[in-house]
Specification:
With about 325 residues, this protein is mainly α. Helix content is about 75%, strand content about 0%. The chain contains 14 helices and no strands. Helix 3 packs antiparallel against helix 11 and helix 5 runs antiparallel to helix 6.
């Protein structure tokens, strides 16, 4: 209980600092109803709701490609658990909600938590690689003279995940050697961080070991590309519906910045990180975004719609799981 309270306090402090910084820059975090009405086209919200629904279902459905090879999980149960897990990730402090899906699916199907944590590790690594590649490619379409952070945004996420990919391949071939190297090198700075890094590698390795062939992994990757593409399309259309001249490649960059931003320690609901990450991306393509009422309305609607719809999907998942018989033993 004490750890939860400390994490909650820390996450709320992060959110407060970021929001105070935004308001200090003159950014309108909570635009008025009149501002929303004036800056939003009638079609923007329903179009985004439909695309988010598709995106959210794809996000849940793709998990099945990692589960099918080693577990017979009813599709309906898998989707219900996924919807609840996504809300837990978003609402629990410092991303501690990542453990929700493995624990829930183990509870309702009796599937091994160890194997399930392996599938979550695969998800995180594949998402990280895809997002960093999309973000880097998108940011190479604009001049670095337009924004001071472009080179960092181009290369830092990509470098991190390329290093991660190399470590994963090396760990797959020589796990004992890589484990010793990580424990020695990262252990110089933090033994807990070294243990965390080794744990991620081990879970990813177990997840891959559970897959009988590469077909399931590549099907998951293909579904992930479709899922992220739908996400970028919704981002782009909602921005344009709020009067922002944001190209699709800018939406890809915005999606990537947001994905990276919410990986950092964040408050419940990503509040603070979410707004800062999206605004940073918009300013690369729209330099006046921080003072634009349309940008403030767009970020507000994007946050409210994503959060609200995620909660609605999770309520459906909870109602589906309610009263479901648990496996014996």
């Amino acid at each position: 209980m004490r750890k939860i309270v400390i994490r909650l306090f820390f996450s709320l402090a992060i959110a407060a600092v970021l929001i105070l910084w935004l308001t200090g820059q003159g950014f309108e975090v909570l635009p008025s109803f009149e501002a929303i009405k004036t800056n939003t086209n009638w079609w923007a919200i329903p179009v985004y709701v439909v695309l988010f629904g598709v995106f959210h279902v794809l996000r849940a459905w793709r998990w099945s490609y990692l589960l099918r090879p080693f577990a017979e999980v009813p599709t309906r149960v898998m989707m219900e658990v996924a919807f609840l897990g996504f809300t837990a990730i978003q609402m629990m402090p410092l991303r501690t909600g990542e453990v929700a899906r493995p624990y829930l699916l183990d509870r309702y199907t009796g599937t091994s938590k160890s194997a399930l944590f392996g599938t979550i590790a695969i998800e995180r690594v594949v998402d990280g690689l895809l997002v960093s590649l999309w973000l880097t490619a998108a940011l190479f379409t604009i001049s670095a003279e337009n924004a001071q952070y472009v080179w960092g945004l181009r290369l830092i996420p990509l470098s991190i995940f390329v290093i991660a990919l190399v470590l994963l391949i090396a760990f797959y071939r020589s796990p004992d050697l890589v484990r010793r190297v990580i424990e020695k090198v990262i252990g110089l700075f933090s033994s807990r961080l070294a243990a965390f890094a080794v744990g991620v590698l081990e879970r990813f390795h177990r997840g891959l070991a559970a897959l009988p062939d590469a077909r399931s992994l590549w099907a998951f990757v293909a579904m992930s590309i479709l899922y992220w593409g739908t996400n970028a399309l919704g981002f782009c259309l909602l921005a344009r519906g709020c009067g922002l001249e944001l190209p699709f490649v800018g939406a890809v960059a915005g999606m990537g910045c947001l994905a990276v931003g919410i990986l950092l320690p964040a408050g419940p609901g990503y509040f603070g990180n979410f707004q800062v990450a999206v605004l940073a991306a918009l300013e690369i393509y729209i330099p006046s975004a921080s003072s634009s009422q349309g940008a403030a309305v767009f970020i507000f609607l994007l946050y409210v719609l994503q959060t609200g719809l995620t909660i609605l999907f999770s309520i459906g998942g909870a109602l589906g799981l309610r009263g479901r018989n648990l496996p014996a033993g």
